[in-house]
Amino acid sequence: MKTPRKCGDCTFCCTFMTVTELSKNVGVTCELVCESGCSVHEKKPAECGSYLCWWRDPYNKFELREDDRPDKIGLSFHVERDLRHGGVVICARVDSPRRVQVGRSRKLIEKVSKTYGAVAVTHGINEGWIFRHGVLVEHAFRDELGLATYDDDHHSEAVQRWITSDK
Ligand code: SF4
Ligand code: SF4
């Protein structure tokens, strides 16, 4: 059995994750973050312990490189339940919409999008997504990424096509 990579001082998910036990909402950086990572690492809440980004996941087929650690590229992939439409979706959580437009982040998003048909690029605060060329982008980012808005029907169809529960 392969061992997951260690987070080290990465705390990228400590902002976008909801941690019920700590009453921490999405988009708020956890107060337990410290310079070396999580200050309660050995006793962190189960929700934190069970989160496995693709970079840590030794079975993830994208074989992310050592220097693809989420805090370094501003991007973390994981699979998430789509509560509105059912199934699951591939999410790319980003810290800044601009960072997904260039370099390694963009290449990874394109690669994942080609493999699965689509990927949701999201900041996690606003759960509205826009589908375009295989990439779903939060409504809030549309201007910054120069994307057009689709109507709700189109959005729903796109999400249905994008459900990847059998992958
Ligand atoms: S994003 Fe991944 S590597 Fe970074 S703290 Fe979260 S689980 Fe660890
Ligand atoms: S408890 Fe630790 S792992 Fe969990 S969100 Fe806070 S800093 Fe991150």
Description:
The structure is a single chain. This protein has 167 residues and is an alpha/beta fold. It has one domain (13-162). It is 25% helix and 18% strand. It contains 6 helices and 7 strands. Strands 3-4-5-7-6 form a 5-stranded mixed beta sheet. Strands 1-2 form a two-stranded antiparallel sheet. Strand 3 (75-81) and strand 4 (88-94) form a beta hairpin. The longest helix has 14 residues, at 103-116. The chain is globular, with a radius of gyration of 16 Å. Residues 145-167 have low confidence and may be disordered. The chain binds iron/sulfur cluster (2 copies). Residues 7, 10-13, 51, 53, 55-56, 69-70, 76 line the site of one iron/sulfur cluster (SF4).
Structure, briefly:
This protein is of the alpha/beta class and 167 residues long. It has helices at residues 13-16, 46-50, 70-73, 103-116, 142-145, 152-162, and strands at 33-34, 37-38, 75-81, 88-94, 119-122, 129-132, 135-138.
Task: Name its key features.
globular, alpha/beta, 6 helices, 167 residues, binds iron/sulfur cluster, five-stranded mixed β-sheet, single chain, 7 strands
Mean pLDDT: 75
Q: Main sheet: which strands, in order across?
A: 3-4-5-7-6
Low-confidence stretches: 145-167
> What is the gyration radius calculated from CA atoms?
16 Å
Any ligands, ions or cofactors bound here, and which? Answer: iron/sulfur cluster
Percent range for helical residues?
Answer: 25-40%
The description of the largest β-sheet is:
5 strands, mixed
| Count of the separate structural domains | 1
What is the strand tally?
7
Global morphology:
globular
Strand content: 15-25%
Please state the structural category: alpha/beta
Count up the helices: 6
Order of helices and strands: HEEHHEEHEEEHH
State the end-to-end distance: 21 Å
